[in-house]
Amino acid sequence: MPLERTLILLKPDCLERGHAGQVLARFESAGLAVRGTKMLRLTDALLAEHYAHLTSRPFYPEIVQFMKSRPVVALVLEGENAVARVRDLLGPTDSKKAAKGTIRGDFGQESMRNVCHASDSTDNAALEVQRFFSASEVF
Ligand code: ADP
């Protein structure tokens, strides 16, 4: 299996509800290694780039408000088949439809407050890692 990197954001609901440690433990227990981490406050410009596929959707302004409501934690995780494996660990977008045992199933609330962002393809992972981290910040 290919060694991959993927970009994670621990969303405002994850930090507000005190789940960051448990979520990170799930990733580490799955054998994924932390290669980069930082806390940052998202801006309108960064969100418009990151969620470009959603800007025309009616709920986009609500997403922006939510994602800016408090700082997020960004992570670069590395491991074999990391992109697909992290998406499996998260479960589907709507936390209410996510199985127990998945991160969203255990810690999420609904479609928007769903604990984590994770890259959905290796191409997007490469773009997203560069969006949030400079080369010297990934180890
Ligand atoms: P994912 O994060 O699972 O890759 P998307 O890229 O489709 O999902 O959506 C990005 C984020 O936008 C979701 O994680 C969620 O926070 C929010 N979102 C998506 N769909 C909805 C929706 N129907 N209602 C409210 N928020 C949504």
List keywords for this structure.
single chain, 139 residues, Alpha-Beta Plaits, 4-stranded antiparallel β-sheet, 40% helix, binds adenosine-5'-diphosphate
* Class per helix and strand makeup: alpha+beta
Shape: globular
CATH third-tier fold name: Alpha-Beta Plaits
The run of helices and strands is EHHEHHEHHEH
Spans of at least 5 consecutive residues with low confidence: none
- Tally the helices: what do you get? 7
Number of strands: 4
State which percent range the strand residues make up: 15-25%
Radius of gyration over C-alpha positions, nearest whole angstrom: 14 Å
What strand order characterises the main sheet?
A: 2-3-1-4
Quaternary organization = single chain
Protein architecture, described:
The chain has 139 residues and is α+β, with helices and mostly antiparallel strands. It has one domain (3-135): Nucleoside diphosphate kinase-like domain (Alpha-Beta Plaits, 2-Layer Sandwich). The protein is built from 7 helices and 4 strands. The protein has helices spanning 12-16, 20-29, 44-50, 60-67, 82-90, 103-107, 122-132, and strands spanning 3-10, 33-40, 72-80, 116-118. It has a 4-stranded antiparallel sheet. Bound molecules: adenosine-5'-diphosphate. The site of adenosine-5'-diphosphate has 9 residues, from loops. Adenosine-5'-diphosphate binds next to loops.
